[in-house]
Amino acid sequence: MNQRPTREQVEFLRRQYPAGTRITLHSMDDPQAPPPGTKGTVSYVDDMGQLGVKWDTGSSLSLIPGEDSFSKEAATEKKKSRNSYEAR
User: Fold this and answer.
1) Which CATH number is correct for 7-72, 1.25.40.10, 3.40.50.1220, 2.30.30.40, 3.30.1120.10?
2) Is 40 exposed, middle or buried (0-12, 13-18, 19+ CB in 10 A)?
3) What is the pLDDT of the chain when averaged over all its residues?
4) Residue 70 CB neighbours (<10 A)
5) How many CB atoms are located within 10 Å of the residue 3 CB?
6) Among 46, 70, 76, 87, which is most exposed with the fewest C-beta within 10 angstroms?
């Protein structure tokens, strides 16, 4: 985003990438960027619409939607526990 995003745009990003969302990096124009394919977890979306990411490599570096290339991983569903009764 080259300009300051509107409040609505930031709120949209916060709904789309809530804390805990897993992402995969494709490319980032930054000398400190982790390599393509690195996975991370979104920590927050700031007021400028940047995604604060804790990378699996141990680093923390924000993503800029519209400038950096990344994708959201499909959410893994938690296994539903069910009560089972053994036939007697």
Assistant:
1) 2.30.30.40
2) buried
3) 87
4) 20
5) 7
6) 87
CA-CA distance, 50 to 68, in Å (whole number)?
A: 10
Q: What is the pLDDT of residues 33-75, one digit of tens each?
A: 999 999 999 999 999 999 999 999 999 999 999 999 999 998 7
Which token pair is 68? 């950096």
Length of the chain: 88
Q: Give the pTM.
A: 0.79
**Containing H/E element for 27?**
strand 22-27
pLDDT at 19 over 70: yes
| Tokens found for residue 84 | 């089972």
Angular region, 21: left φ>0, alpha ψ -120 to 50, beta rest: beta
